[in-house]
Amino acid sequence: MFDYHLHTPYCRHASGSMDEYVLKAMERAVEEICFTPHLPLPDFPRGGRDLRMDREDLDRYVADVHRLRARFPDFPILCGIEADYYDGYEGYLEKILSRYPFDLVLLSVHFVHSWPGDNWLFGFDFPDKSISQIYSEYFAEIKKALKTGLFDCVAHLDVIKQPGSPVLQSNSADIIEILDLCQAINMSVEINTSGLRKRVAEIYPARDILDLVVARDLPLVTSSDAHDPQSVAHAFPDLLALLKSLPDCRIARYRQRSPTFISARNLG
Ligand SMILES: [Zn+2]
Ligand SMILES: [Zn+2]
Protein backbone atom coordinates (compact mmCIF):
# COMPACT_ATOMS: atom_id res chain seq x y z
CA MET A 1 0.00 0.00 0.00
CA PHE A 2 1.06 3.57 -0.64
CA ASP A 3 0.51 6.53 1.64
CA TYR A 4 0.41 9.49 -0.68
CA HIS A 5 -0.76 12.33 1.56
CA LEU A 6 1.63 13.15 4.39
CA HIS A 7 2.19 16.53 6.00
CA THR A 8 5.43 18.00 7.33
CA PRO A 9 6.54 20.44 10.01
CA TYR A 10 6.60 23.05 7.24
CA CYS A 11 2.80 23.04 7.39
CA ARG A 12 2.97 24.59 10.90
CA HIS A 13 0.02 22.56 12.12
CA ALA A 14 1.66 19.13 11.79
CA SER A 15 4.13 17.58 14.19
CA GLY A 16 7.14 15.26 13.98
CA SER A 17 10.13 15.34 11.68
CA MET A 18 9.92 14.14 8.10
CA ASP A 19 12.42 11.41 9.09
CA GLU A 20 9.94 10.15 11.69
CA TYR A 21 7.19 9.90 9.05
CA VAL A 22 9.48 7.80 6.87
CA LEU A 23 10.49 5.51 9.73
CA LYS A 24 6.86 5.01 10.74
CA ALA A 25 5.88 4.20 7.15
CA MET A 26 8.64 1.58 6.93
CA GLU A 27 7.63 0.12 10.30
CA ARG A 28 4.04 -0.19 9.03
CA ALA A 29 5.15 -1.86 5.78
CA VAL A 30 3.98 0.98 3.56
CA GLU A 31 5.62 0.50 0.15
CA GLU A 32 5.84 4.13 -0.96
CA ILE A 33 5.09 7.50 0.53
CA CYS A 34 4.46 10.95 -0.83
CA PHE A 35 4.88 14.09 1.23
CA THR A 36 2.21 16.68 0.45
CA PRO A 37 2.60 19.86 2.50
CA HIS A 38 0.09 22.63 1.90
CA LEU A 39 1.22 24.87 -0.95
CA PRO A 40 2.19 28.43 0.03
CA LEU A 41 -0.42 31.04 -0.92
CA PRO A 42 1.23 34.46 -0.63
CA ASP A 43 -0.93 37.22 0.86
CA PHE A 44 -3.72 34.78 1.45
CA PRO A 45 -6.47 36.18 3.70
CA ARG A 46 -6.26 33.29 6.10
CA GLY A 47 -7.60 35.02 9.21
CA GLY A 48 -4.39 34.63 11.16
CA ARG A 49 -4.33 30.86 10.95
CA ASP A 50 -0.91 29.41 10.31
CA LEU A 51 -1.81 26.73 7.89
CA ARG A 52 0.97 26.41 5.41
CA MET A 53 4.55 26.93 4.31
CA ASP A 54 5.96 30.25 3.29
CA ARG A 55 7.18 30.64 -0.24
CA GLU A 56 10.82 30.38 0.99
CA ASP A 57 10.08 27.04 2.65
CA LEU A 58 9.43 25.34 -0.69
CA ASP A 59 13.11 25.02 -1.57
CA ARG A 60 13.88 23.73 1.92
CA TYR A 61 11.08 21.19 1.63
CA VAL A 62 12.30 19.87 -1.72
CA ALA A 63 15.88 19.70 -0.35
CA ASP A 64 14.57 17.72 2.62
CA VAL A 65 12.96 15.17 0.30
CA HIS A 66 16.32 14.79 -1.48
CA ARG A 67 18.09 14.38 1.86
CA LEU A 68 15.62 11.65 2.87
CA ARG A 69 16.03 9.85 -0.45
CA ALA A 70 19.77 9.73 0.24
CA ARG A 71 19.20 8.49 3.79
CA PHE A 72 16.67 5.80 2.72
CA PRO A 73 17.78 4.87 -0.82
CA ASP A 74 15.65 1.72 -1.03
CA PHE A 75 12.41 3.36 0.03
CA PRO A 76 10.43 5.39 -2.53
CA ILE A 77 9.80 8.89 -1.18
CA LEU A 78 7.81 11.13 -3.49
CA CYS A 79 7.80 14.88 -3.52
CA GLY A 80 4.21 16.04 -3.67
CA ILE A 81 2.14 19.03 -2.76
CA GLU A 82 -1.40 19.63 -1.52
CA ALA A 83 -2.50 22.60 -3.59
CA ASP A 84 -5.49 24.61 -2.44
CA TYR A 85 -7.71 25.92 -5.17
CA TYR A 86 -8.81 29.47 -4.45
CA ASP A 87 -10.21 31.96 -6.96
CA GLY A 88 -7.55 34.30 -8.27
CA TYR A 89 -4.54 32.09 -7.54
CA GLU A 90 -4.67 30.06 -10.75
CA GLY A 91 -1.79 31.89 -12.47
CA TYR A 92 0.39 31.69 -9.39
CA LEU A 93 -0.42 28.00 -9.00
CA GLU A 94 0.48 27.26 -12.58
CA LYS A 95 3.83 29.01 -12.20
CA ILE A 96 4.78 27.26 -8.94
CA LEU A 97 3.71 23.83 -10.16
CA SER A 98 5.84 24.15 -13.28
CA ARG A 99 8.89 25.29 -11.30
CA TYR A 100 9.21 22.37 -8.90
CA PRO A 101 9.78 18.68 -9.64
CA PHE A 102 6.60 17.43 -8.01
CA ASP A 103 5.54 13.80 -8.32
CA LEU A 104 1.92 14.42 -7.37
CA VAL A 105 -0.32 17.46 -7.03
CA LEU A 106 -3.34 16.96 -4.81
CA LEU A 107 -6.30 19.28 -5.22
CA SER A 108 -8.05 20.43 -2.12
CA VAL A 109 -10.50 23.16 -1.27
CA HIS A 110 -10.37 24.42 2.30
CA PHE A 111 -11.71 27.90 1.61
CA VAL A 112 -14.80 28.96 -0.32
CA HIS A 113 -14.18 32.31 -1.92
CA SER A 114 -17.73 33.60 -1.65
CA TRP A 115 -18.11 32.77 2.04
CA PRO A 116 -17.82 35.51 4.63
CA GLY A 117 -14.93 36.14 7.00
CA ASP A 118 -11.85 34.11 6.25
CA ASN A 119 -13.77 31.70 3.98
CA TRP A 120 -12.77 28.72 6.12
CA LEU A 121 -14.56 25.56 5.00
CA PHE A 122 -15.07 24.10 8.45
CA GLY A 123 -16.40 27.16 10.20
CA PHE A 124 -19.58 27.74 8.26
CA ASP A 125 -22.75 28.89 9.94
CA PHE A 126 -25.50 29.65 7.46
CA PRO A 127 -28.88 29.42 9.19
CA ASP A 128 -30.68 30.41 5.96
CA LYS A 129 -29.05 27.89 3.65
CA SER A 130 -29.89 24.21 3.29
CA ILE A 131 -27.09 21.71 3.78
CA SER A 132 -27.44 20.82 0.11
CA GLN A 133 -26.82 24.44 -0.88
CA ILE A 134 -23.79 24.68 1.43
CA TYR A 135 -22.36 21.45 0.01
CA SER A 136 -23.08 22.71 -3.48
CA GLU A 137 -21.11 25.92 -2.94
CA TYR A 138 -18.11 23.84 -1.91
CA PHE A 139 -18.50 21.50 -4.89
CA ALA A 140 -18.71 24.52 -7.22
CA GLU A 141 -15.14 25.37 -6.16
CA ILE A 142 -14.02 21.79 -6.85
CA LYS A 143 -15.57 21.97 -10.34
CA LYS A 144 -13.81 25.26 -11.10
CA ALA A 145 -10.54 23.75 -9.87
CA LEU A 146 -10.91 20.64 -12.04
CA LYS A 147 -11.51 22.79 -15.10
CA THR A 148 -8.09 24.43 -14.66
CA GLY A 149 -6.42 21.07 -15.36
CA LEU A 150 -3.67 21.95 -12.87
CA PHE A 151 -4.06 18.96 -10.56
CA ASP A 152 -3.50 15.18 -10.60
CA CYS A 153 -5.82 13.90 -7.90
CA VAL A 154 -8.81 15.21 -6.00
CA ALA A 155 -8.16 14.93 -2.26
CA HIS A 156 -10.83 14.23 0.37
CA LEU A 157 -13.64 14.98 -2.09
CA ASP A 158 -16.44 15.03 0.48
CA VAL A 159 -14.43 16.63 3.31
CA ILE A 160 -17.31 19.05 3.86
CA LYS A 161 -19.72 16.30 4.91
CA GLN A 162 -21.46 16.69 8.23
CA PRO A 163 -22.54 13.84 10.51
CA GLY A 164 -26.09 12.79 9.64
CA SER A 165 -26.13 14.59 6.26
CA PRO A 166 -24.79 12.15 3.64
CA VAL A 167 -23.51 14.00 0.61
CA LEU A 168 -24.71 11.69 -2.12
CA GLN A 169 -28.29 11.84 -0.88
CA SER A 170 -28.51 15.61 -1.20
CA ASN A 171 -25.93 16.38 -3.93
CA SER A 172 -25.76 13.46 -6.32
CA ALA A 173 -25.82 15.74 -9.39
CA ASP A 174 -22.73 17.58 -8.09
CA ILE A 175 -20.90 14.33 -7.42
CA ILE A 176 -21.74 12.88 -10.82
CA GLU A 177 -20.63 16.04 -12.60
CA ILE A 178 -17.35 16.03 -10.65
CA LEU A 179 -16.64 12.36 -11.36
CA ASP A 180 -17.41 12.92 -15.05
CA LEU A 181 -14.94 15.82 -15.07
CA CYS A 182 -12.30 13.65 -13.36
CA GLN A 183 -12.81 11.00 -15.99
CA ALA A 184 -12.57 13.49 -18.84
CA ILE A 185 -9.20 14.85 -17.67
CA ASN A 186 -7.69 11.61 -16.32
CA MET A 187 -7.64 12.60 -12.70
CA SER A 188 -7.49 10.17 -9.85
CA VAL A 189 -9.58 10.29 -6.70
CA GLU A 190 -8.09 10.02 -3.26
CA ILE A 191 -9.33 7.50 -0.70
CA ASN A 192 -8.29 9.08 2.57
CA THR A 193 -8.59 7.58 6.06
CA SER A 194 -8.38 10.87 7.95
CA GLY A 195 -12.19 11.13 8.04
CA LEU A 196 -12.11 8.18 10.45
CA ARG A 197 -10.27 10.44 12.89
CA LYS A 198 -12.83 13.23 12.55
CA ARG A 199 -16.31 13.71 13.99
CA VAL A 200 -17.94 12.28 10.87
CA ALA A 201 -16.01 9.03 11.51
CA GLU A 202 -15.97 7.72 7.95
CA ILE A 203 -13.52 7.54 5.13
CA TYR A 204 -13.31 10.21 2.37
CA PRO A 205 -15.13 9.72 0.09
CA ALA A 206 -18.10 7.92 1.62
CA ARG A 207 -18.68 4.34 0.52
CA ASP A 208 -21.61 5.20 -1.79
CA ILE A 209 -19.50 7.80 -3.60
CA LEU A 210 -16.59 5.39 -3.76
CA ASP A 211 -18.85 2.89 -5.52
CA LEU A 212 -19.49 5.50 -8.25
CA VAL A 213 -15.75 6.22 -8.50
CA VAL A 214 -14.99 2.54 -8.97
CA ALA A 215 -17.86 2.06 -11.43
CA ARG A 216 -16.19 4.70 -13.63
CA ASP A 217 -12.82 2.95 -13.22
CA LEU A 218 -11.24 6.15 -11.93
CA PRO A 219 -7.82 5.44 -10.39
CA LEU A 220 -7.56 5.68 -6.61
CA VAL A 221 -4.81 7.25 -4.54
CA THR A 222 -4.56 5.78 -1.02
CA SER A 223 -3.66 8.01 1.90
CA SER A 224 -3.82 8.75 5.60
CA ASP A 225 -3.43 12.56 5.42
CA ALA A 226 -1.19 12.19 8.49
CA HIS A 227 -0.32 15.38 10.33
CA ASP A 228 1.85 13.44 12.82
CA PRO A 229 4.02 10.31 12.44
CA GLN A 230 1.66 8.19 14.52
CA SER A 231 -1.08 8.68 11.90
CA VAL A 232 1.00 7.43 8.95
CA ALA A 233 -0.92 4.57 7.30
CA HIS A 234 -3.75 5.09 9.78
CA ALA A 235 -6.40 2.34 9.44
CA PHE A 236 -4.67 0.89 6.38
CA PRO A 237 -5.66 -2.71 7.29
CA ASP A 238 -9.32 -1.55 7.15
CA LEU A 239 -8.64 0.36 3.94
CA LEU A 240 -7.09 -2.72 2.37
CA ALA A 241 -10.11 -4.81 3.36
CA LEU A 242 -12.40 -2.18 1.85
CA LEU A 243 -10.44 -2.08 -1.41
CA LYS A 244 -10.53 -5.87 -1.65
CA SER A 245 -14.29 -5.84 -1.12
CA LEU A 246 -14.88 -3.55 -4.12
CA PRO A 247 -15.08 -4.67 -7.72
CA ASP A 248 -11.54 -4.66 -9.06
CA CYS A 249 -10.16 -1.13 -9.13
CA ARG A 250 -6.96 0.64 -10.08
CA ILE A 251 -4.52 2.09 -7.59
CA ALA A 252 -2.40 4.90 -8.99
CA ARG A 253 1.36 5.08 -8.51
CA TYR A 254 2.87 8.43 -9.46
CA ARG A 255 6.26 9.53 -10.69
CA GLN A 256 6.74 13.11 -11.91
CA ARG A 257 3.02 13.56 -12.21
CA SER A 258 2.52 10.52 -14.47
CA PRO A 259 0.47 7.63 -13.13
CA THR A 260 0.85 3.91 -13.68
CA PHE A 261 -1.72 1.53 -12.27
CA ILE A 262 -1.85 -1.50 -10.04
CA SER A 263 -4.87 -3.70 -9.57
CA ALA A 264 -6.26 -3.50 -6.03
CA ARG A 265 -6.35 -7.32 -6.13
CA ASN A 266 -2.55 -7.30 -6.12
CA LEU A 267 -2.21 -5.15 -3.03
CA GLY A 268 -0.62 -6.91 -0.09
ZN1 LIG B 1 -3.34 20.20 7.02
ZN1 LIG C 1 -3.78 17.16 3.80
Overall pLDDT level? 95
Characterize the quaternary organization of these chains.
single chain
Tell the overall outline. globular
Strand order of the largest sheet: 1-2-3-4-5-6-7
Strand content: 15-25%
Total count of strands: 9
| Contiguous runs where pLDDT drops below 50 for at least 5 residues | none
What is the helix fraction of residues, given as a range? 25-40%
Which small-molecule species are bound to the chains here? zinc ion
Q: Mind telling me the C-alpha Rg?
A: 17 Å
Distance between the termini: 7 Å
- CATH second-level architecture: Alpha-Beta Barrel
Helix/strand-derived class?
A: alpha/beta
**Largest sheet geometry:** 7 strands, parallel
Topology:
Layout: E1 2-6, H1 18-27, E2 32-35, H2 57-71, E3 77-84, H3 90-99, E4 104-108, H4 131-148, E5 153-154, H5 167-184, E6 188-192, H6 207-215, E7 220-223, H7 236-245, E8 250-255, E9 258-263
Parallel strand pairs: 1-2, 2-3, 3-4, 4-5, 5-6, 6-7
Antiparallel strand pairs: 8-9
Helix pairs in contact: 4-5, 5-6
Bound molecules: zinc ion (2 copies).
Notes on the protein architecture:
The chain is of the alpha/beta class. It has a single domain, classed as Alpha-Beta Barrel (TIM Barrel), CATH 3.20.20.140. The chain is built from seven helices and nine strands; from the N terminus they run βαβαβαβαβαβαβαββ. Strands 1-2-3-4-5-6-7 form a seven-stranded parallel sheet. A two-stranded antiparallel sheet has the order 8-9. Strand 5 (153-154), helix 5 (167-184) and strand 6 (188-192) form a beta-alpha-beta unit. Helix 4 (131-148) runs parallel beside helix 5. The radius of gyration is 17 Å and the shape is globular. The mean pLDDT is 95. The chain binds zinc ion (2 copies).
